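Sequence and structure are no longer studied apart. To make this concrete, we show below a single chain and its fold as tokens.
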Amino acid sequence: MIRRIAAMFLLIFFTFSTITFAFNEDVYYNDIKVGLENMMSNSINVELNGDYISGGVLYKKGTSFVISILNGKVSFNNTLYDNISFTPVDNSSTMRLIVGIKRYNFKGQLDFVVKGDMILPINTINIEEYLNGVVGYEMSNSYPLEALKAQAVAARNYASLR
């Protein structure tokens, strides 16, 4: 009996929270910020697969550089910053971050901030782009379509609450 009540409560909760979320356009179409804690390091190699702007300067596709920490600041091109942002010129641009053997491509804006004695990359990305990446990363496409849809709903709700 308790299981049935709990199951009914969860069903009602998720149904209404999803419906409310789906019709709230302010949340539905917003960009989200994702701290890439698995990419934190004292030195991050960057490769641009598209054009990016930072501090009014255009960095062209194919540019590579290192972002590191020095004296508690972000070090880039022999200059120290509290934080530094790279904004893509168009939506097809990606930025590859390389830390040790980890290599990941990211769309959207990337900010680099100091967290403790490390550099934390923060990815600002449209929620739909985020969901495309996170569902594919967390589940194989061999899962049933309904399972992938459920994962997308769960990921959207999780992202909206953070």
Summary: The CA atoms of residues 88 and 94 lie 8 Å apart. The longest strand covers residues 118-126. The longest helix spans residues 2-22. The radius of gyration is 19 Å.
